[in-house]
């Protein structure tokens, strides 16, 4: 297992204690290195031939730094290295795992694919970003409704997705969904 991140500036920096942006500037690779405890490489160096699969975590950083979904929605652009990584694994018929908001990357890069970001309606207030499912459909992809503890497998494209924090759920349910995503990716590898 190796960890990669793009070597680019963050769109913005948020003080998560206050919930507001700061004037700071930070680099995605440097911040990712902090989380990965330094064991990380520039995404530009990733070679799909050296790996059996790729998994993209989610989080708002994906929507702001791996693509511009947070600002542009379905009209977003995808970071060139993220795009080329997805294309390389897809072309090699190797599995791609995506959780939380990152399934929008596949929806943008692979028209016609199937993904999940949870539900397409805000069921009991648990899916506040349910409109993301509509945007995915507008991109020509199929959104498949799944519960937070489940994942969806697009067998034709070898894409496995789960909603994770797109659902307001207890951490153990989110953990279970991510676990099913990882298990399904490994089965396809």
Automatic annotation (TrEMBL):
UniProt lineage: Eukaryota, Metazoa, Chordata, Craniata, Vertebrata
UniProt-listed Gene3D superfamilies: 3.40.50.880
Superkingdom of this protein's organism: Eukaryota
Organism per entry: Manacus vitellinus
Identification of the protein by name: GAL3A protein
SUPFAM superfamilies the record matches: Class I glutamine amidotransferase-like
